[in-house]
Fold:
Amino acid sequence: MKTYILNAALITVLMIGLSACTDNDYMELDKGSEPLSISVSETAVMLEEKAHSSDAFEIRWTTGTNFGTGNRISYTLELAKSGSGFGNSVIIKNNEIQTYNWKPSVEQLNSILLDELHAQPDEEISVNVMLTATVSGMEGEVQTSECSFSAVPYEPVTETLYLIGDATPNGWSADNATEMQRVDNGVFSWTGNMKEGNFKFITTPGQFLPSYNDNGNGGLVYRDDEAQPDLQFSISEAHAYKIEVNLLNLSITVQQVEGVTAPYDNIFFVGDNTNWGFQLMDRDPLDMFLFRAGIFFTTAGQFKFGTSDGSWENMYKATSENAPYTSEGVEFVKGFDPDNKWYIDDSQINQAYKICLDIRPGKERMIMRQFTPYQQMYLIGSAAPGGWDLGQGTPMSVDAGNPNIFTWTGHLNEGELKFSADLQSDWNGAWFMASSENATPTGTVEKTIFIDKSDTSLAAQYPEIAIGDVDYKWVINEAGNYTITLNQLLEEITIIKN
Structure:
């Protein structure tokens, strides 16, 4: 029994000793006396983005010698453009141990050639490779070996792609083009509602070139000059579509899909201002992913957004604790934690705000800004007493106790009706419109659409809608005496025939 204990103790001591030696860069077995040697699996490499995730080639090396010491060897691998020397080399591996090769992906090597060695796309570059081996405790005995290779890099395709055209949600506006989702190098996808019309693709918002167009055979063609043909793809039937493009092989698929839906039908505002009660928000009539609320804050404190009345799970929350209300970052949390919330302080209350929560998966955001009531509101349209003449807009009366509420009672003709808040002569001002085209008043409280066509920040809330093109009106089918009540904060209206 005593012998067993002694042996176990001896083993323990030896293990500790080995560990200590390892920590001090020792105890690597004798590597012999063969000189250090480095080589490449291919001396000429043609890089193609289609194979971006594949191995480009391999650089491998022998161990070199540790001069019989048994000490550890570290390796430094450098690349340099041929003829430039290694004074400005790219360090690939720096004093690494127990590694004897480097196998970069096509994308990795391409990036090094373009960004570090300043190679030109589609032009061959010659590269010198140097490996340095250093034995621990013998730093003065440096071993080196060199080899070389040539490579032809490629110009990577764009990392962003946008839909543009009268078939797309945002029309031909390059500034507000519809962004596609990047799936992989050169591969993009988008699912959404398309209208009858044409479309193509651009790479940069606000710029019509370069673009990807129809090549005339159902594929894509790269276009970077106005003189080149501007053939476009077409949609013959308004529907929901999934569009996938591969810029590496210049292919495109367009297929009808079932209607696009948002992850939740209801969103609730909850926070100190509601005493942590769940206040139902309004779904935007133009965009199913947007939920809105007009709230007058009387209480400072925190807030977040729920998806089910009374449930503290599956909530949309801030990305940091006590984020300012101007912070747009949103995190969807399935469980309870993290529980970050937005915060509004004492200096920011006793003020009305309009809130927009976008629950578009992967692009969630919260937009909240102060709201100052418009001082006037006017009836405009063929149903109104003043018709379509902005100079004859029919004024409504503001409520003495609430500056957000306007009322009017009088005769309406058969015809169309909407409401202006500012009577801008170019028709691009602030409007309250029907929530759908040619809507008939219900005689009950109903939602309106508020659009300020001159407000670029409001337009940015609609990633797939060109709000300048929206012009929905109520249709009055029966002339007579009506009473109208409009709440501009809640964006609600009641049109009742007396």
Notes: The CA atoms of residues 41 and 58 lie 5 Å apart. The chain has a mean pLDDT of 91.
